[in-house]
Every structure is written in C-alpha cells, then in structure tokens.
Write a structure and sequence with these properties.
This protein has 285 residues and is of the alpha+beta class. Helix 4 packs antiparallel against helix 6. The strands form 3 sheets. A 9-stranded mixed β-sheet has the order 2-1-5-10-7-11-9-8-13, sandwiched between helices. Strand 3 and strand 4 form a beta hairpin. The protein is built from 9 helices and 13 strands. The longest helix has 25 residues. The protein has a single domain, classed as Alpha-Beta Complex (Spore Coat Polysaccharide Biosynthesis Protein SpsA, Chain A), CATH 3.90.550.
C-alpha cells in the first residue's frame, strides 16, 4: 500500500514538517503517520520562541516582548505573542528552504497534522491542477457545515478545489508553488499576525489561495508547544485587545480578508469555474 501511494506523488514535490528541536516525540509521531500513507518528509527545525528571541528580532525587527507579548494591539486589533511570531517565522523559513531547491511544489506541514486515508491521492490530484492555484489550504480547523465558495475543480473521493468566501483558520498544512512562496515571503515584511490569518489575507499577498473541501487534514489534538512555556495554571491571555479602537481594527481587518476574495476569484477563474456552491468544511474519517 505504501509503495502504491508513493507512486501517486508527483515529481517536483517536497514535503517539510515544521518541528521544534525539543519535540522529538512529535516528529516521530509525524513520521509514523506519514509512513502509513507511504510518504517521506524533511524535518525542518522550527523557530523556538523559548530560546531564539534575539535572532527572531534581528530577522523581523519587532520590539522587545513584554513577557510573551510583542504587541498589546497589532494592526488586526489583537494581541500578538512571541509564540505566534515564532510560528510565522517557521513557515517563512520552510518556504525559504523550498526556494533553495529545484522543486516546483512544497507541502508544508506542522507536526500536529493528522492526514485522511486518501491524503496522498488528494495531494497528487491537487498538484496535477497546479496551474490553477498558487497555494491550497488543506485544513479548516474543525469547522462543520458549509460555506459559500466558487467551485474550481473536482478531486477524487468527492473532494474539490474551491475559492472560499469565508477564510479558514489553521496552518497545519498547505501546498504552495514557487511563485506563491516568493510572493508570500515578500509581502510578509512588516506583517505581525498569526500565520493562519496571513494565509487567509489574499488582499495582502495576492495569492490565488484555494481550499480543499472537505479538508483532508486536521490537527491531531496534541497540545501546542510553539509558545513559550508557562507555569502550571497560567492560562493563555485572550488574543483580542480591549477597547473600541481594537474592535474597529478587527472589523476592518476581517473585511479586508473577506472582500478581496470575491474579486480575486471572479477575475482569476473567469470561464474556469463550476459555479457557486455550498462547500463542506470537514467530514469524518
């Protein structure tokens, strides 16, 4: 079964798993999940918010954090934490490594990703449709029900590629092309928000960002270790900054994520789509 699935994977595709050096157990668990599908990945050492703050600041030029908080209120009207920045930089690092290769496509996975049994077949089919997209999100963070979307292509097993009008959450897995990675990295300068929020912000990076519906990937449920460790009993502070200014910023940011999607999809897929549908978020496997 593993050999058959490997043969489905297209040439020119490289798989990276983002994993902290201090989380070898998570890497071994990912190896087991991937091997069960006949897949082999490259481990990429994640940026560590616990030990690399000075290096992180040199790379992206943010102020010294107050505890685990970099900004009390960012442009999105939310608090921005050092762990979120470490995650953002880890994704930038993975894409930069991809651009140093001769490969044409990259599958970026976080080390808590759990893949559906048809994951390899789905990835192969999406890769075959690479002229239609710059990036494809593979996770929708446990959402149920449906959302309005422009259907772009059918995939095996009842899945499809869609241009969703409702941005997804989560950054556990996505495919990206070389031009997509170049634009993603270039547009990230000065952006301080969670990487999954940035992935959804087509108005910022301009990528043809499609979703796979229903999603073939979900988070495994393992506790997050990307943030700096806290003492037992200390809860993660709410991400929303207080006050009317913060609420106004959040509203504007949400509109900027949603409104450009209809224009981008209508323009990029004129005469190359299958119409508006109610696309499913997830299904059990």
């Amino acid at each position: 079964m593993g050999r058959e699935l490997v043969s489905l994977m297209p040439p020119g595709l490289v798989i990276y798993v983002i994993n902290l050096d201090r989380s070898q157990d998570r890497w071994l668990a990912m190896v087991a999940r991937l091997e069960a599908l006949g897949l082999v990945a490259i481990r990429m050492s994640a940026v560590d918010a616990k030990s690399e703050v000075d290096e992180m600041r040199r790379r992206r030029g943010f102020p010294a954090p107050d505890g685990d908080r970099i900004f009390q209120m960012n442009a999105e009207g939310r608090r921005y934490l050092i762990g979120e920045e470490a995650c953002f930089q880890s994704h930038l690092k993975a894409q930069a490594l991809f651009l140093q290769t001769d490969e044409t496509l990259a599958l970026i996975l976080e080390d808590d990703a759990d893949m559906a049994p048809d994951f390899a077949e789905t990835i192969s089919a999406i890769a075959a449709a690479a002229p239609l997209w710059d990036a494809v999100r593979l996770e929708s963070a446990g959402r149920r029900g449906t959302r309005r979307a422009l259907k772009i292509a059918d995939l095996p097993g009842g899945r499809m590629l869609v241009g969703s009008l409702r941005p997804c959450s989560g950054s556990s897995g996505y495919l990206i092309t070389r031009p997509g990675a170049e634009r993603f990295i270039a547009a990230a300068k000065g952006v301080f928000e969670p990487v999954d929020t940035y992935l959804s912000s087509v108005g910022k990076h301009g990528l043809r960002m499609l979703d796979c519906a229903p999603s073939p990937l979900r988070q495994s449920g393992a506790a997050s270790v990307i943030h700096a460790e806290r003492d037992a009993g200390v809860t993660t502070p709410t991400r929303r900054a207080p006050g009317l200014v913060a609420r106004w910023r959040r509203l504007k940011a949400d509109l900027k994520r949603v409104l450009p999607r209809r224009r981008l999809f209508a323009r990029a897929y004129k005469d190359r789509n299958l119409g508006w549908i109610e696309a499913p978020w997830n299904r059990d496997w």
